[in-house]
Specification:
Layout (H helix, E strand, L loop, with lengths): L6 E2 L23 E8 L3 E9 L10 H5 L2 E3 L2 E5 L5 E4 L1 H14 L7 H14 L11 E10 L11 E11 L10 E5 L17 H5 L2 H9 L4 E5 L7 E4 L3 E6 L2 E5 L9 H12 L4 E4 L3 H9 L3 E8 L3 E10 L2 E4 L7 H15 L9 E3 L1
Parallel strand pairs: 1-3, 9-10, 9-16, 13-14
Antiparallel strand pairs: 2-3, 2-8, 4-7, 5-6, 5-7, 6-18, 7-8, 10-11, 12-13, 12-15, 15-16, 16-17
The protein binds 2-OXO-4-methylpentanoic acid.
Length: about 350
Amino acid sequence: MTEYKIEINLSSSRKQKPSFDSLEFGKNFTDHMFIVDYTRGIGWHDPRIVPYQPLTLDPACMVFHYGQTVFEGLKAYLTQEEEVLLFRPEKNMERLNRSNDRLCIPQIDEDLALSALKQLINVDREWIPNAPGTSLYIRPFVIATEPYLGVAPSGRYKFIIILSPVGAYYKEGINPVKIAVERQYVRAAIGGTGNAKTAGNYAGSLKAQEVAEKAGYSQVLWLDSKENHYIEEVGSMNIFFKINGEVVTPALNGSILEGVTRDSIIQLLKHWNVPVTERKISIDEIYQAQKDGILEEVFGTGTAAVISPVGEFFWQNEKLVVNGGKTGELSKKLYDTLTGIQLGTVPDPFGWTVKV
Ligand code: COI
């Protein structure tokens, strides 16, 4: 891969690192960040690694008013041999450009983005945590920076990458979470931006999330916007059900986020000859499967969430317990295998990991 010329301006001072044994998700940031600017008529220019710092932006920047912004999430892992591995980073860069396309943001050179990411990680290598269940979360994002109040694509952008040493996303760690099926609000509609990783999808989800949290649930399970009947995804992850030996997950339909972990789990299950199907799944079917005692496991998948077993879901005033509220055998095997591949302790037959 081409080593792109990226200017590096190292910080003269270093921040105190948090204890890697008690990391929360997304609260600590490393010493440096990557930035590249876009100007209409010029293209992307001035790629640079600079000390992590606040941005100074015009209050009229279009991102503040019309939400023209996209983001990604991926992770770097420190192996026992002190090597640094990324997990399928090219998939994130491809998805970033698909999101860019949906939000009328210019395409980014994926090789430049990957080269910049590797150089940034090398600069902040000491921030990669090594405690069990930890990793370096990577947040690439693009914001529209032209000061203009007309509704139109911006003529200026910044593509930025920041890094955050993290522990588990949920306070439950790898223990089962509880989710509530959402009936009043919807996350996304076909033809909308549901399959793009853009801030508005997440801002629009907060209300339902807040209500669910007050009732003791970690996340909401979204249903489709048209019939309010078919399962789509959970707040920060895709969802899988094991029913009578078969694993099913909602088929991608334009309003569901195309998760990299989702795809990896489907490939792993196929590799193990576990029957797995992507199709429409109604909430009634899941309800009935639970009543019939054939809903064996439910788990979510995502970069931040990894594999997150679901021990209970709330639907129409009923608490439906899955697998006695415990982590299922398949969820555990998937978690161990996926994190093993990511950490280089389990063979990677798919060639998913990339050395930094
Ligand atoms: C991720 O899993 O990386 C995500 O982007 C979810 C995020 C909203 C925490």
